[in-house]
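Researcher: Please predict.
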Amino acid sequence: MLGLRANGKAGWLVTLLSVTGLVCGLTTVAQAEYKPRASAPPLVLSPDLSGPWVMQVPKSQAKALKNVRRSTKRKQSRAVSNRYNRRIPKQFLPTTLNYNTSHSPGTVIIDTTTRFLYLVQNNGRARRYGVGVGRPGFEWAGVHKVTRKREWPDWRPPAEMIKRQPSLPRYMPGGPRNPLGARALYLGSTLYRIHGSNEPWTIGQAVSSGCIRMRNEDVAELYKMVPIGAKVYVR
């Protein structure tokens, strides 16, 4: 019970204001509850009490959101399919055949016109692989030797390539995302290589900046059979 004492009209007024403020404060605390705005959807607690709070979405919005998600998934699925499910023409798959040449076994011959790489073997035979070659303006021909080999090589685009494509990374470690693929055979002191690719669907095409592309499976096989010092003829 509160004791009130009158100390003149001013005293009564101060005391009443104090009591009123106290009562209002108690009422505010007692009645403090979450009251959502009329325009806000209600909150629903997940059946799993340890789960997060979720917000109800009107049926019309939920349907629209579902359609957007379906459309996005379809587009992503088509993109993945187009990128990874392209078939390489059968003629560019590896095969062993008769091959008449005066070059000694172990020599690599690359025909950029037909997009084939031949590894000369014994008894007039050769192992043939499909390759990707330099696009128009990046063709070249010559004779070189394999000067070094690397498994899952890293990639440092040369200055000329970065000038043409400034968005390229300055360095990329070896791995499945690296454009040099699983193996690389370096040709003399040139910037050219015979290497794998993370774009196998480009085999048989003229798309590179001069390097010879192979499927990762094929370049890994070639890597085992071609020693450092082997001659490479590009024509």
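Model: The two ends are 108 Å apart (CA to CA).
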